[in-house]
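Work Package 3 (structural annotation) set out to generate three-dimensional models for the target panel prioritized at the project kickoff. During this period the team completed the workflow that converts sequence records into discrete structure tokens, so that structures can be stored uniformly alongside our sequence database. As a representative example, we reproduce one entry of 200 residues exactly as it appears in the project archive.
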Amino acid sequence: MIGFIRGKLVTKTPPLLVLDVQGVGYEIEAPMTTFYNLPVMGETVHLHTHLVVREDAHILFGFSTESDRMMFRTLIKVNGVGPKLALTILSGQSADEFHRCIHDNDTAALIRLPGVGKKTAERLIIEMRDKLPTRDDSSLSSSSEQGSIVSSRSNAKQEAISALCALGYKPQDASKMVQGIAQEDKSCEDIIRLALQRKT
């Protein structure tokens, strides 16, 4: 198991990023909560990781905080929730927001996430209620306090739409989500963050 990885950030195209670790490029899939914390290109990044081994691929998932990795590992233990859906859930809600949905039995908020139907939402609430720490646990991290990112703005809108599609949203829905967002001086990650906030 690869517990963490540290390397130079060379590519970030949500949900995929690439780290150069002593000349080897590691492809890592990450939730948007991690992308919000990424530094500028060329800077060193330290990520907590989880390796998923399938018959056709070995996929490395990266997280900026240990609490996000723990949440991911808890999510993929839920019946019917795979790594892709777990990544979408972590991208669409902060840990604190997800916590509230579980403890308040808020299936409506969970259903708004792509790939989460009524049965899956109900299963998440039932299976995760006893696995999550209390709401005031200090280990919880909120994405609302995470910093903004400096990156290329030239194609930010289209990159944001592509990223939302990769996270499970339909192309027409992704386009609607970014419409109306003032895009001056906003990075792809900023646009995605605003679009996800409007969606919820």
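The chain has a mean pLDDT of 82.
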